[in-house]
Amino acid sequence: MIHPVHHVPGRLRLRVPAVKQSEFHADAIGRALGETQGVLRHAISPRTGSVVVHYAPEHCDPQRLVERLRESVPAAGAAPAVTVNWQPMARGAEPDGALLQRVGQTVATSLVEKLIERSALALVAALL
Length: 128
Description:
Elements lengths: L2 E6 L2 E5 L1 H5 L1 H12 L4 E7 L4 E6 L6 H11 L23 H32 L1
Antiparallel strand pairs: 1-2, 2-4, 3-4
Helix pairs in contact: 2-3
């Protein structure tokens, strides 16, 4: 839903709750405004759900602008289809994060062992 909040000729502030919910809706509004004749610039704030439109009053009717946005912007809750490429993991395989963690632990253990070994050798050499 798009609600006009404030208007002076050449500037229109709209409240668009869907913008707060997703980047998808913010992008759709940005594209619609960018394609609208007479729109000079616009600012979309996902934090507040506010859209400010600066337009040329002689080339753009604010009522038509709001109607165009209502027609071109997907309904709240609509979202692009997401395709997930799911493949089962092989038996005994680990997720990427677990594998990375194991590699890190192995490297750290090897470094500590090398450090202890060199320290022991240095100590023995000092005693002899």
